[in-house]
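Notes continue from the previous slide.

Worked example: a multi-chain complex. Inputs as given:
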Amino acid sequence: MVALKPFLETSIEYLKGVGPARAEALRSELQIEVFGDLLTHFPFRYVDRSKMYLIKDIKDENTFIQLRARVIKTKTIGPPRSQRLIVTVEDESGQIDLVWFQGVKWLVDKIANGQEWIIFGKPQLFNGQWNMPHPDIEPPETEPLPISRIIQPIYSSTEKLKSKGLDYKGIGKLVKTLLLHEKFYVPENLTRDILERLRLIHRQDAFLNIHFPQSPELLSKAQARLKFEELFFIQLRLLKQRISRLQKNEGHVFATVGNYLNDFYHNYLTFELTNAQKKVIREIRADLGSGKQMNRLLQGDVGSGKTMVALMCMLIALDNKYQSCLMAPTEILANQHFSNISRMLSGLNVNIRLLTGSTKQAERNVTLGLLESGEVSFLIGTHALLEDKVQFNNLGLVVIDEQHRFGVAQRAALWEKNQRTPHILVMTATPIPRTLAMTLYGDLDSSVIDELPPGRKPIITKHVYDRDHFKVYNLLKQKIREGNQVYIVYPLIEESESLDLKNLTEGFQTVVKEFPQPEFRVGMVHGRMKQQQKDAEMKRFLEKETQILVSTTVIEVGVDIPEASIMVIENADRFGLSQLHQLRGRVGRGSAQSYCILMTPEELGNDARIRIKTMLKTTDGFEIAETDLRLRGPGDLQGTQQSGILNLRVADIIQDEKILKFARNVASDILNDDPELRFEKNAILAKHISHMDEHQQNWGLIS
Ligand code: ADP
Ligand code: MG
């Protein structure tokens, strides 16, 4: 028996009008490989073709419009091989030139003076005059337009595809061929119950109408149906994975509230926990005692005291006779955690060890031995913790600091360090907007520390133009003389790394000249330096040998230097919002008034202006993250590359937040009832999910 390949998985090459060359171009340019891919290459916009423009009303480039005008003059210019055809047309309001660079010979014969045409295209401004390159022209219909042509779909295309005749219109033709194919059939993937309850249109109708809408109403119904479907299956899959994880991984039960925690809390903690910290610790303790494996994301702004929460959890693990580890993304941070935690626990008898890339072999061996025999209670370190040689005796809790710096695979490696999966707490200071978190980390529970410890002086944020540099330098001198330390940060954008490095070193030289020795001492760190060099420079700053640290964003994460109270960000217009926020979080940790100074040129783009304005207006990390998401779209946010969220075809997690929440509720109701989707009535959903798994999100949204 030969298995029949489903229609939608047929190679695009076999669609009428495609062939090998176009197939190759569709594959390389738009990742369209099979019929299903073309079907989900949705129009990015629609043009209302029932509307006619007057020539005098043209005012926008790059939007499609439709004119009804009469030819008054035709001329060709240029040598025969690169001939251009210019057709001047006129309506009651004015004139415009239509221009063709291709197909001139053929067109010349078709176009005669006095003829009236319906003209459809994008006007463009050239030497102060409007013209329209390569419009579509058609004779005016005597009959009213067939309805499917009133709403014209516009497809994205590329130069290469256009050269093969596949502009938006060419692609539209292919889509039409597909939809009219005698075997065209899109199976339903939602249950009848969902369709009826939510009044969604059928899948096949949705696909027909999203490409060639029969009416504006049907277009919006098609969009609603497909957006729901897209978000629903993401949520259903995430929530289902979560259920099976909870079933599969029994968690260590940390039932004891023991001496270590109590002793520390009552005798060594030098400050009162904030209410937010208490709330989060309660949430975590509930998880740890539940018998289910914890997988929790802890979000809290820079300086909100996440490390303290982590430490308390590690003490709970210890009270229950389990080992914990804390992994940080850099050596500096690991060292800092190690020395802070060692200091805080110095009165308690806890065996804490540090393991990083620069731990000496002899010491490493001792640590590894003690770890395996169970004598080490807390292991703190960097990626070095992931190595195979690192074997625990009974690892109960894994804490990962600044999780966005680690890949999914690295996180998973820590899971494997124990027979029974340890509890996992991942911490991040890069707030993740709720909608994104729901999609990106749908499998993680989330806790938020939404309050800073008391007594912090708000950081003063200022925007200064480059021409006023000297004022900033004067302020810095004064502040340094008062004992403060200063960061000066330059952007590093990967595409032009060498150029940026030049900026940085030039900046460094300027700063050195402006702040001469011996009164001032300036250090520099950047991403091209070896880790050891970087650490040495950071250490010099930490130990106050230098007062100014010129750097790229390598200092963005985690480091805690209370005397560093001023952050100057050069070319602040070139940084993303979340980055600016992270950088600002490096200061404001000590008792002195802190400043964040955003330097920019006077000319600012629109987005840059919004970013600077947002920084001046708020220090709320969540508000900043929301604005960032709105400005950049989800694709640029950290972590999204791994998530497949980029592959959203119709839905938009910002605009469709309501649908997302709704879809999540529907998915969660279904799973409450039928956690493994075993019921006959849910078979259609189970089938679609396994299809998605097989196709790895490629065109998994079809089936
Ligand atoms: P985060 O990792 O969330 O950026 P940290 O855990 O490094 O923040 O805490 C920042 C500083 O605040 C540390 O010096 C820490 O000791 C201190 N801190 C934490 N919690 C409190 C609290 N409840 N009250 C006062 N200071 C606190
Ligand atoms: Mg931290």
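Summary box: Residues 306-307, 401, 558 surround magnesium ion (ligand 2) (CB under 6 Å). The radius of gyration is 31 Å.
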